[in-house]
């Protein structure tokens, strides 16, 4: 099924207030906090959203339908989003708009080299940035006609989604994460914490990443992160 043609019906034509009406957006993202932000951005813009939390789930989605737009986080639990971008960029028919996402400095060049049409630095919370990233890469006949007021609205995801991310990280650590899974935990928590302005956790994730890069023992760093996660799960609201 090709969801990129859903706006063919008149009532699905984009408007100035809902410029992405009729589009289906697939978000490949393991963070529920980041996905909640994307859900709100799509809702404000008129787009439908579907979510995949890993490469395997994304490929399963893509076997069933072709979205109009796909956002791919580069750090996923079962591999790099770069590999998925490469597959999408060379596929026929091609997803009309492929955008990479990450909070890592190196990621933009990797996403573009893999074939992405553009890149968004996380956190993605600006409505104007989100809409422009999609609209600037759509064919002109798929954009709303006439002038469009660009709203400088900033999305604030539900803190409960942040708690969900903490629970996910706790599950990974409780399963005895080591090696590449510790790298994943450091990357995942670093991105989520920066998005939520949780500087303490972001610094702890960075310390774990540095320890892993040095190749030495990281038991202390991992234990510290586990304690921070427990603190956040015990709070009634996420930081």
From TrEMBL:
UniProt-listed InterPro entries: Bact_response_regulator, CheY-like_superfamily, Sig_transdc_resp-reg_receiver
Top-level lineage group: Bacteria
Record flagged with keyword Phosphoprotein: yes
Coiled-coil parts of chain: none
UniProtKB keywords: Phosphoprotein
Gene3D superfamilies listed in its UniProt record: 3.40.50.2300
Native organism: Pukyongiella litopenaei
Protein name in the entry: Response regulator
GO biological process, one term: phosphorelay signal transduction system
Residues of the Response regulatory domain: 24-137
In-chain residues carrying the UniProt-annotated modification 4-aspartylphosphate: 73
Keyword Phosphoprotein belongs to the record: yes
Pfam families: Response_reg
């Amino acid at each position: 099924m090709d969801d990129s043609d859903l706006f063919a019906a008149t009532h699905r034509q984009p408007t100035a207030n809902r410029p992405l009406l009729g589009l289906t957006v697939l978000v490949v993202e393991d963070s529920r906090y980041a996905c909640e932000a994307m859900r709100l951005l799509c809702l404000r813009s008129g787009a439908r959203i579907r979510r995949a939390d890993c490469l395997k789930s994304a490929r399963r989605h893509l076997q069933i339908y072709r979205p109009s737009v796909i956002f791919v986080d580069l750090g996923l639990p079962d591999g790099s989003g770069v590999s998925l971008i490469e597959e999408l960029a060379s596929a026929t028919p091609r997803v009309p708009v492929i955008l990479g996402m990450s909070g890592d400095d190196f990621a933009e060049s990797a996403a573009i080299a893999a074939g992405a049409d553009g890149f968004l630095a996380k956190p993605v919370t600006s409505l104007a940035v989100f809409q422009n990233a999609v609209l600037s890469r759509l064919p002109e006949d798929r954009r709303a006609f006439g002038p469009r007021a660009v709203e400088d609205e900033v999305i604030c995801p539900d803190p409960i989604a942040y708690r969900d991310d903490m629970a996910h990280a706790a599950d990974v650590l409780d399963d005895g994460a080591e090696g590449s899974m510790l790298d994943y935990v450091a990357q995942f928590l670093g991105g989520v914490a920066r998005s939520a302005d949780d500087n303490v956790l972001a610094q702890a994730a960075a310390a774990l990443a540095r320890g892993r890069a040095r190749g030495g023992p990281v038991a202390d760093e991992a234990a510290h992160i586990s304690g921070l996660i427990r603190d956040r799960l015990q709070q009634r609201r996420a930081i």
